[in-house]
Design brief:
Number of helices of chain A: 12
Number of strands of chain B: 0
Strand order of the largest sheet of chain A: 6-7-8-3-9-10-12-11
Oligomer: heterotrimer
Strand content of chain A: 15-25%
Structural class of chain A: alpha/beta
Order of helices and strands of chain A: HEEEHEEHEHHHHEHEHEEHHHEE
Number of helices of chain B: 11
Largest sheet of chain A: 8 strands, mixed
Helix content of chain B: over 70%
Number of strands of chain A: 12
Largest sheet of chain B: none
Chains: A alpha/beta, B mainly alpha, C mainly alpha
Shape of chain B: elongated
Shape of chain A: globular
Chain lengths: ~325, ~300, ~325
């Protein structure tokens, strides 16, 4: 219905499937993920390590590691254009300009032997068609924007702390004012005290530049603070998807509930936080049916065998479960 | 329920296969690597024929037969004969024992001494460490083969002296490597983790420091046998290591060199066997490295 | 930086000094000496030999002999004389140095110029037929004894095809086969090293970052992956140079080239120990200078190392982990 109103979504992923190969085995990293992002919207992708969140983001930019990727299928529509079918030079025009990415580990995300402003300027020079000098100038401005003094621009990554490096990465990602920013656990590798600062910086810049964002995290607190919508990812599938309010106030999927159960809530007196028993399934050998079924208390034979579809509760909330109350 | 059981079994197997460092894991890797298999087969074949040569061949490696002097390869003598009519095939196979034993023994001596020195220096540091590092600087002021040449010039020719010369020239490499590994491992967080759960020092050293520091050494040893074998043949070729009439490959090449104009077959086979042996050892070493360092794997 | 370069150059001095002491000490372990060898071939009696030894200072305490050796070496540039030819070792070696230079530096030049691009090609095309073939051939070539390769090359190009001279000195064509024979192993070794190193870098995060910025694959490889991937290769070039220097000794013997290496081997065979001592010292010196150049090159490329040097502290900065 909304589709008719705003002709095309900024990003729409349909049935994305990604397989890796590892030691002769096929790893089912992403299994039929569909999601969409509107302009200026922040979508939180929440899930445990290894659930396939990063793979989804890297698929959008088509920067999955060649040597390990077995197959990618489905559709990734960016402003209506299928990126999975786009030509190589079309992708290079989109990367860093229309869509850019912030990586998890700032320690390794920067080229150790290139001054930071040059690394940012590279981006600007390439996409904005300005001179090298102008690009450096803008890169230095961008550094100021993220709170790094411009005269440190000529320094090398090893001269910055972890938090500062992540600021550089953010400056690099936002240098060309992309329409979509993919932030892959941007604060996980940082000290707790720095995490809030960096997150706030990203959120503020996002508002200022009106960039849409997919924020990948395993931290529900981060989601609560920043996101408009939330998708819960488990074993390469989306189990629940909806607005932040819907998901936080009326979680339906047992896994989502389990995640909230594992969070401390100050308003309630609970002696012990609940946890979800068991481990996520082995991605080289996924169970048939619902991937969460082996750990789910409500699971029935139907869950273990049949394919469970994502069903729409209301336009703002979808869930992949047949046992919702 | 059955699905569940099945799944756990598979998960266990999956995890087991991901235990790098375990003997089973390394063996599995080696036995799935065509190169390593080829290498192991080649080395085993050469060794088996080498030790069974008195029973397999009609001739002895030292049997002189002046009728067949300089004979070209034929059905009777597949690799031909040398200037004294000795069968080259028998000599080449018999000679495998020199190259391999020099390679293995000199590497073993160098590795044991080097690893011990490096481990002590790395773990305890201090004055011994400084002293050792300066000594290694001096030792490494010479290219390895030049140092081996110097030592064997002083010791004189012979199998045992050749082993010592190559061992001496190899110590510095292992010591440096082990020291660096120990320093690296010592700084890792899992050592701190082990300390924090009250692991005893001896347990930390035996079950954390050594296994993690030693795996690069294992690879280096395998490669070391190869390069030591090569250097041994070079020393013998120069007239310093094993001397003729012993059928050491380098020594055989040294005598064949003067006759290469007329009888090139004498020079081809010993060199070919050096190459096959060294390639095989390198293939096994490469595969070992892949098995021990999953980082580099595809 | 300038101060660091000076410091590194000065560091060579004690090393060379100690190395010369070590060589002298090792050589003095040899049980026989030139005078005994020469005179025992004549009709001299044991007493006469002993007297001549006494006169030549062979019976002096070790420290005195060492002192004399070092004084002559460092104050007068005197390495003694070859007892075989009677000519000063220093003069002999200086005249032979150009040949070893051409051979060793020619070989490392060929090894770097062919090995690095080959390794890069292999890494960029990892898994393809090109890569597999390169890896197969480099494995073979890396495992070949250089003197055997030399014999085979002579057999083919000098004796069969009669294209190139098989031994001796002369024009540059005399160096073609020796340089090929000496360098092929290092070409292969450097190619394999480069491939491994570049491959590791290609898979590192910052290369993914560079890709995510929209840089073309060519720029990603040449501007980001290669400069980083080549840092470890430079270090290994130093080691390979050592191998080539040792190799040239064998190659000089094989091709009858009158270089420093063959001078040393002939010295060993003739028990002409002043020659051996002198040649050893030359080789150690050339090696030390090359390693110094490699070290400086390393600092020049990697800002992390440069920063360490600029700070003038010996503190080792852990790779990329400064907080």
């Amino acid at each position: 219905m909304t589709q008719e109103k705003n002709d095309v979504k900024l990003l729409e992923i349909k049935d994305l499937e990604v397989r890796y190969r590892s030691g002769g085995r096929s790893v089912h990293a992403v299994n039929g993920v569909s999601l969409s992002v509107d302009r200026g919207e922040i979508l939180g992708l929440v899930g445990e390590t290894g659930a396939g969140k990063t793979t989804i983001a890297k698929s959008i930019l088509r920067i999955l590691p060649d040597h390990a990727t077995q197959s990618v299928s489905g559709e990734i529509l960016f402003e209506g254009e299928d990126l999975l079918k786009a030509k190589k030079n079309r992708m290079t025009a989109i990367r860093g300009y229309k869509i850019s990415m912030i990586f998890q580990d700032p320690m390794t995300a920067l080229n150790p032997i290139m001054p930071v402003n040059k690394q940012i300027a590279e981006d600007i020079q390439l996409h904005m068609g300005v001179s090298k000098r102008e690009a450096i100038e803008r890169a230095n401005q961008m550094l100021e924007t993220v709170g790094i003094s411009a005269d440190r621009g000529g320094e090398y990554p090893h001269q910055f702390s972890g938090g500062m490096k992540q600021r550089v990465v953010i400056a690099m990602a936002l240098a060309c004012r992309p329409d979509l920013l993919l932030a892959d656990e941007p604060t996980t590798a940082l000290d707790v005290t720095i995490q809030a600062q960096v997150l706030e910086l990203i959120a503020n810049l996002q508002k200022e530049l009106k960039t849409a964002m997919i924020l990948i995290t395993h931290d529900l607190g981060v989601v609560a603070g920043v996101c408009d919508k939330v998708a819960v990812v488990y074993a390469g599938e989306i189990l629940e998807w909806g607005t932040k309010e819907e998901i936080f106030d009326y979680p339906k999927h047992p896994y989502t509930k389990g995640l909230f159960g594992a969070l401390p809530d100050l308003s309630k007196k609970v002696r012990r936080l609940s946890s979800i028993d068991g481990l996520p399934p082995d991605p080289t050998n996924l169970p048939p049916g619902c991937p969460f079924a082996p750990r789910c208390q409500k699971a029935t034979d139907e869950c273990r065998e049949g394919t469970i579809e994502l069903s729409e509760l209301n336009p703002d909330h979808r869930v992949r479960c047949i046992h919702i109350d | 329920m059955s699905i569940l059981k099945n799944k756990t079994a598979v998960t266990e197997e999956y995890q087991e296969s991901l235990q790098p460092g375990s003997f089973k894991y390394i063996w599995r890797h080696l036995s799935h690597d065509k190169g390593a298999i080829a290498g192991m087969i080649a080395i085993s074949l050469i060794l088996i024929i080498c030790f069974l040569s008195p029973y397999i061949f009609k001739y002895d490696f030292a049997t002189i037969d002046m009728v067949n002097k300089n004979a070209k390869p034929s059905m009777e003598h597949l690799f031909g004969c040398d200037e004294l009519g000795r069968d080259i095939m028998v000599r080449v196979f018999y000679g495998a024992r020199y190259t391999l034993s020099i390679g293995v023994l000199s590497t073993a001596i160098a590795a044991v001494i080097g690893v011990a020195l490096g481990a002590i220096a790395g773990y305890f540091g201090g004055r011994f460490d400084t002293l050792l590092m300066r000594a290694l600087d001096i030792l490494q002021a010479f290219p390895q083969l030049v140092l081996a040449t110097l030592v064997s010039a002083v010791l004189g020719p012979g199998l045992d002296k050749c082993i010592i010369a190559l061992a001496v020239s190899g110590i510095a490499g292992y010591a440096r490597m082990m020291r660096a590994n120990i320093l690296n491992v010592r700084g890792q967080e899992y050592i701190e983790a082990a300390k924090s759960i009250d692991c005893s020092t001896s347990r930390i050293i035996t079950s954390h420091v050594i296994p993690n520091a030693i795996s690069p050494i294992i690879v280096q040893v395998c490669m070391g046998i190869a390069s030591s074998g090569l250097n041994a043949s070079a020393l013998s070729f120069l007239g310093l290591g094993v001397q003729p009439p012993e059928p050491e490959w380098g020594a055989m090449l040294s005598s064949a060199r003067n006759l290469i104009r007329q009888y090139p077959h004498m020079a081809i086979f010993p060199g070919l066997f050096i190459m096959i042996t060294v390639v095989s050892l390198n293939l096994i070493g490469d595969s070992l490295r892949d098995a021990l360092d999953p980082k580099l794997r595809d | 930086m300038g101060r660091y370069v000076m410091k590194r150059i000065l560091q060579i001095i004690p090393i060379i000094l100690i190395v010369s002491i070590l060589i002298f000490a090792i050589m003095s372990l040899v049980p026989s000496d030139p005078i005994t060898i020469i005179m025992s071939q004549t009709s001299a009696t044991a007493e006469e030999i002993e007297a001549a030894r006494e006169a030549a200072g062979y019976n002096d305490p070790f420290m005195i002999r060492l002192g004399n050796y070092l004084r002559k070496l460092y104050l007068h540039g005197d390495m003694g004389n070859s007892f075989k030819t009677g000519s000063p070792v220093m003069t002999d070696l200086l005249s032979r140095l150009p040949i070893t230079f051409r051979l060793a530096f020619g070989s490392i030049f060929v090894a770097v110029v062919i090995g690095i691009p080959l390794g890069v090609l292999s890494a960029v095309r990892a898994g393809t037929l090109t890569d597999r073939m390169t890896m197969f051939f480099t494995l073979m070539l890396n495992s070949m004894p250089n003197f055997w390769l030399a014999l085979m090359l002579v057999l083919l190009f000098a004796l069969r095809l009669k294209l190139l001279p098989s031994n001796g000195t002369g024009g540059l064509d005399h160096y073609i086969l020796p340089v090929i024979a000496n360098s092929i192993g290092a070409v292969a070794g450097i190619a394999r090293q480069t491939r491994a190193s570049v491959l590791e870098v290609i898979r590192s995060d910052f290369v993914t970052t560079a890709r995510s910025k929209g840089l073309s694959e060519r720029v990603v490889i040449w501007k980001h992956a290669l400069p980083n991937g080549l840092i470890p290769v430079i270090t290994s070039c130093g080691t390979f140079f050592g191998r080539l220097l040792g190799g040239s000794m064998v190659i000089e013997m094989t091709f009858s080239l009158p270089g420093v290496g063959s001078y040393m081997i002939n010295g060993i065979n003739n028990r002409d120990y002043d020659c051996v001592q002198g040649a050893m010292l030359y080789i150690a010196f050339i090696f030390a200078i090359t390693m110094l150049v490699v070290d400086l090159l390393y600092a020049f490329i990697d800002p992390r190392i440069k920063a360490q040097y600029a700070a003038g502290s010996a503190k080792k900065v852990k790779k990329g982990a400064t907080a």
